[in-house]
Amino acid sequence: MSIWDDVSHEIQQFTAEIRDLPVSTPAHPASVRRDIESAFDLATPIPLPELTQKVVGLLRAYTVQVTHPRYFGLFNPSVSEAGIVADTLAALYNLQLAAWSHAPAASELERLTLAHLGKALGFDPDKTFANFTTGGLESNLSAVLTALAHRFPDIAVKGTASLPARPVIYITSESHHSFLKVARMSGLGTDVLCEVPTTSRFALDVAMLKGQVSRDIAAGRCPFMIVGTAGTTGGGIVDPLPALADVAAECGAWFHVDAAWGGAAALVPRLRAALDGIERADSVTWDAHKWLSVPMGAGMFFCRHPAAIRAAFDVSTSYMPSTTGVETIDPYMTTVQWSRRAIGLKVFMSLAERGRDGFAEQIDRQATMGDLLRRKLADAGWLITNDTPLPLICFTHGDIRSKRRSTGDMLNAIYSRGNVWISDVVLGRQERVLRACITSFRTEEADLDYLIRELEFARLAR
After folding, report:
1. CA-based angle 353:354:360, to the nearest 5?
2. What is the rounded distance in angstroms from the CA atom of residue 18 to the CA atom of residue 68?
3. Judgement on whether residues 62 and 109 belong to the same structural domain of the protein
């Protein structure tokens, strides 16, 4: 047998066995390090088949199995076989997408994929720039840098010291915390972030936003960017995108929608209305490695202002291949990254294998499982604390609110058994509640019942 027979066997065996494996097992740094250091000294060569088996054993023993159908945690999905094949091919050919001429096929497959998904958002592919990124942080960083180039043309040369007024980026407590990193990385500093209060359902409060914008203008500050989220990480909340687009248009701010997880709802007819207004965004973040069930990392960035993209990222070198012509754009001239692997190949192959309708059916089924879990939790006496059509459920219990149990107690009891995995979260800086998200397309009703039983065990455990 060749090494590839071994790898193929592991892929098939792991997929077949995942439901019977623990979702998680306790791991302590000292024991993990001891096992690794006793197996590898990095001085003595190890035959590849033996090395592969050792690594497989470690990954099985010391990993939260996020592809498990009873993993109800963060946005880490089960992955499609097509995605695994695509990532293998990307590694085999070592595709380099810095310059179009080095990988014409991969570049055009990415272009086709992004155009198709951009249409689902309501973006005209002939007037839109789109590219694959490492993930949501890079996409959000791209949005801020592009918006700066669009609003302040001199910033590329003169830097932030040349800004005529202090810019303001409007977020909420539920916005992704990558914006803290983006503010630091861009040189703007976290003082540019203005946290707008949320409504009782944890969505951005438009009235409060309008008031804050007026105060900022009166104080000589520049309303620079309004960030709406389509599917918050904590509660799956979709901000009022049409109203945010109106405010942005009135004050001249860039409107960015962070749809890293929720963007997939654009592919499902019954969920599309939840994203109304996203088509008015100046830019959108969407991660395929979340709800589109492809391997990490596969972020996407869509922008209506190609000229601003070039102003933000364009460079000229003598060592890169000459551009092919006006019909193509070299990615190193239009993105944060320079050297880049074929991130989009796994998205293309997953989409092409299933077709858009098949993809939509898979996403819709997970939303249906989310609806079913809400009903089962309510029937079992749990209290739902968030309001979203997306399959992310936040919930609590009278025993938690009365302090007889804490979410920490619950999670410790659940993790000790390793049968399911959920998390907890604080929504709107208020109450800490439990959080369960349907992340696997393999999750079935029986898995939901399993979760309910584990919750009841944890609630009653002492």
Report:
1. 150
2. 6
3. no
